[in-house]
Amino acid sequence: MALQVGDKIPNFSAIDTNANVFESDTVVGKKAFVIYFYPKDDTRVCTEQACSFRDQYEDFKALDTEVIGVSSDSVKSHQKFTNQYKLPFILLSDVDKKLRKLFGVPNDLFGLIPGRVTYVVDKNGVIQLVFNSMSGKIHIKKALEILKRT
């Protein structure tokens, strides 16, 4: 079942861009965060979305919010993607799609492409926004709107 607004974020772990284990409890209870699921590194819309998060990263930091990207790409792919576009936030590798299943992220309408969903989570680990759209850039605007209200 998909996570919804008002749900508490489940504990999770995954391998990050630096090949370290990321544990959700390193942010839950300490700061708000945006976790966004995207289909694939280095594709047009995914790159636009990542670069939009990069370009507004200071706005997120000013709101004491961390940004975390998730796709099923390998750590090596994430490292290349991060270096190429100078992404200041971590990417988590979800090769086995466990995180995607845990959050209930759907595939696109035709079931072929992994979905693009953004979750805004407050400092207490409660989901404040679930935004599902294959359009990449609008996710950043929606996330910042919610964070400014909380």
UniProtKB/TrEMBL annotation:
GO terms for molecular function: thioredoxin peroxidase activity. GO terms for biological process: cell redox homeostasis; cellular response to oxidative stress. Pfam families: AhpC-TSA (PF00578). Coiled coil: none annotated. Monomer. Belongs to the peroxiredoxin family. BCP/PrxQ subfamily. Thiol-specific peroxidase that catalyzes the reduction of hydrogen peroxide and organic hydroperoxides to water and alcohols, respectively. Plays a role in cell protection against oxidative stress by detoxifying peroxides and as sensor of hydrogen peroxide-mediated signaling events. The active site is at residue 46. This is thioredoxin-dependent peroxiredoxin. It is an enzyme of class 1 (oxidoreductase). It catalyses: a hydroperoxide + [thioredoxin]-dithiol = an alcohol + [thioredoxin]-disulfide + H2O. Its EC number is 1.11.1.24. GO terms for cellular component: cytoplasm. Signal peptide: none annotated. Residues 3-150 form the Thioredoxin domain. Gene3D superfamilies: Glutaredoxin. Keywords: Antioxidant, Disulfide bond, Oxidoreductase, Peroxidase, Redox-active center.
